[in-house]
Design brief:
Chain lengths: 95, 985
Amino acid sequence: MLINHPLLGPRDAQEFTYLGDAALIQRPDWQADDAADQFHEYLYLRDNPAGLHRELWFHEAGDRSWLVVTRNTVTHEITDVQLARDVARNEGRST
Amino acid sequence: MTHSNRLGGGLVDQSTRLSFSFDGAEYQGHQGDTLASALLANGVRLMGRSFKYHRPRGVMTAGSEEPNALVELRSGARQEPNTRATVAELYDGLDARSQNRFPSLKYDFMGINDRFSNFLTAGFYYKTFMWPKAFWEKLYEPVIRKAAGLGSVSFQDDPDCYDKGFRHCDLLVIGSGPAGLMAALTAGRAGARVILAEEDFVTGGRLNAETHQIGDMAGSDWAASVVAELVALPNVRILTRTTVIGAFDHGIYGAVERVSDHLAVPESGKPRQVLWRIYSKRAVLAAGATERPIAFENNDRPGVMLAGAVRAYANRWAVTPHKQVAIFTNNDDGHRTAADLMAKGVTVTGVIDIRPDAPSLSGAEVFAGAQVVDSTGRLGLRSVKLRLASGELRDLNCGALAVSGGWNPNVHLTCHQRGKPVWNDAIAAFIPGGELPFGMRVAGAANGDLSTMGALKTGAQAAKDALDDLGIRAQLPDLPKAEDAKISLTPFWYVKASKGRAWIDQQNDVTVKDIKLAHQENFRSVEHLKRYTTLGMATDQGKTSNMGGLAVMAELTGKSIPETGTTIFRPPYTPVTMGALAGRSVGKDFHPTRETPSHKWATEQGAVFVEVGNWMRAQWFPKPGETHWRQSVEREVRQTRNSVGVCDVTTLGKIDVQGADAATFLNKIYANGFAKLAIGKVRYGVMLREDGIAYDDGTAARLAEDHFVVTTTTANAVLVYRNMEFARQCLWPDLDVQLISTTEAWAQYAVAGPNARNLLQKIVDPEFDISNDAFPFMACGEVTVCGGLRARLFRISFSGELAYEIAVPTRYGDAMIRALMEAGEEFDVTPYGTEALGVMRIEKGHAAGNELNGTTTALNLGLGRMVSKKKDCIGNVLSEREGLNEDNALRLVGLRPVDARDAIPAGAHLMNADGDVSAKTDQGYVTSAAYSPILESSIGLAFLKGGADRMGEILRVVNPLEGQDIRAEVVSAHFVDPDGERLRA
């Protein structure tokens, strides 16, 4: 597969390490009343879609960016690639 | 030189003379021959024995689809089994042998299997070797394994090298027949970057096997002229001897180039094969078509071949399998073979055409509406038995039978993703359908356009369309005049009048009867059919047999062939040698070898090395007279604890953390607090996974307000760094913090023992005060050593002694170890390796990988109080789960044997002294054990249920697997210096 790195252009998937669902960015608030339940869901419960999937890839043999890659799990078509940091900021993880 | 079956003309150079041997007999062939064509030229039809029944077999095809003629090439370390003689290029001195026979090809003892064929039908293994159960491993499997398989491997290292490489192009053209050549020409003239990949060692594909004219030239001459133009274009690269083996995601193709297989020994510096990864923007698949046979009784005799192959041998290689050839066909193409053979002076004894309205042919008798029902000839075909349209039976003499059942487009690569072939009635075959791999177009025979004109036209158009996608303007070349015959074919798969065995899959010895049996036993889906009968397995993957099998099954189930469907085509298209897949990653190059800065010095000392996370670490340093590793290790421990020792700890991961929020960031990464760590201090830290399990430990040293140096364990250096980047970029994206791995940038040595400071005072420049008051336990700082070299000093201890770690830039690492050893001479300094390091950390009760084993929490490790409840850090929420915090949770304890002569067995389980030995009564397990030269006793670390409250208790330490059962006392894990006085001295 080729991943179109937002900073570096198309790179072979071999340069990356795969983590999984980009929902891992949404780490719950540790002080929430139901923090234990939220963390349980965050850590153990994942969707397994046949179709579009937003997922985290680490450019380990490259510039060490974490990317959010939107990939169709059926066709492997990649429709969007963003820096995970930008995604995290957009999703409200700025402190 | 006379070849009994060599004809005139052809594309072989009949002026050359190449000697080769087959089963020890010497033969000659010509430049341009394959092993198969050269054997046929010499009158050799028998080339192998079949897999199951050991039936005599000859060559059936002229290409990579060959099921029968599998041979062993070369000898010694270069011996290569199961190579198809049809693609083995002849070279002078080629040494080939037949396989799967004993003692010889003509007299094979295992031919007895053929007599028992009634027992050896589909599902034989599944039915026969069911019971008794114990017989499987001891008897059945070894016997079957011995009998199975064809060729043999040399069991020697491959002396040749294999490579991997990358190629990029706008258009990849797969196949160099008329369609592929026109595609490459169209794209090449348009200036696109083109790669033309051809499996064969000559370009031109089927044009070399036919007598068709293109324009006013012979087809093969036209092909040569196009190739000449392509070679002159700088934007076109032609790869011959290169098979595209798979279509992968996003336009990436795998291809194997056989650089040196046509040579006895690769040229100096050249690989035998190269595995290419081709990045294409678009691709044209012009892979042609494969002919299929018709099954009839005893259709597997040497001499029964595909008609297109017989024609190819005659036209390209100037060879006929026999002086007398008959044809068996259901379509007009079979008649071409008859005509071409007769033009070369070969006698065609008859054309058996199943069609009642078969066209006539001058020079040969056509038996319209007739079928071949049987054949004779033990080691080679002698005659066939016909059943004429009238029902009359007749014998027809022939030494070869050219069979044509129609042509199947080579759709394989179109299916490597989600393609699903569709049925085409006109040619009674599957053509590409469904969703093709990204950017792929199909042209020519591979797409069902079986005429030469169709190939030329669709090849050019496919390339033009592909380039249109890319915004490259291309002109269609002028189409030359070419053969454009209509397909005339009556689908016909097997002769029903045959009573005996009619072979569908010759490679796997699957007959029409086997398919009927599979149907009868309800293995009717094509995927079940394949697994139950092995139809379509092994090196040819059913290229000539799958369609026949499907057709028989379709008939039995009353469904159409498209309803029956095909099995899934998967890469690779043809077999790939393991060497090509491995490339250079073999032996010591299988993965990188990392050497520490003291490696050269340690080698000079005669160190014994151990591999840790790709690093070569000194395990111990034997001295003259030491005959057992324990002598060396115990001496290193004693010398260190009594005076001073030095150990290379460069391999620990080092991560430089800088930025205004560096402390805030570390506070989130570590379970314990780091925000308040003073500048110039080091703190031990534990990292948790988000699920609350401890996964790494190490130290973080604060060199400045905004600058920390984190160390990780050797094994987890990469993982910790990855996780820290995840936290930095994904979880807390706006913290002002930067990370970089500096593991390789610093050479680091532990200097441990009562004389550690005395030694270091000779190394560290005098303006830096490292006295106990100025530089206490857990201090750190930047210093200079040896007269001005910048260094970092950390007062930390893994051994439990007064200890430091000193780091210098890596290029000074070798000089540093030599300087340390020289300065330490007066203190009787010793280098120590990982074994002594391990003994000392067990004596001190420090956790390492054995204890941080992926199942243990900080609480288990006795570090529960370190986990801060007052801050957000990775893992702290889930570490509070009830199940991880039970009162009798495992706790790290020490063990000492009651009888000092006993040794604590590592990995043993703990049981109550008077209880049962069972999983139910399990109390915990031993993680680490060593002989302590200081305590002069075996000691161990263990996780024990409720261990913190069980000091002094006697337990059974048992290892039922090895029959070990000793008694040990539960003690503190801190065997040496439990109060830490030495650390602070």
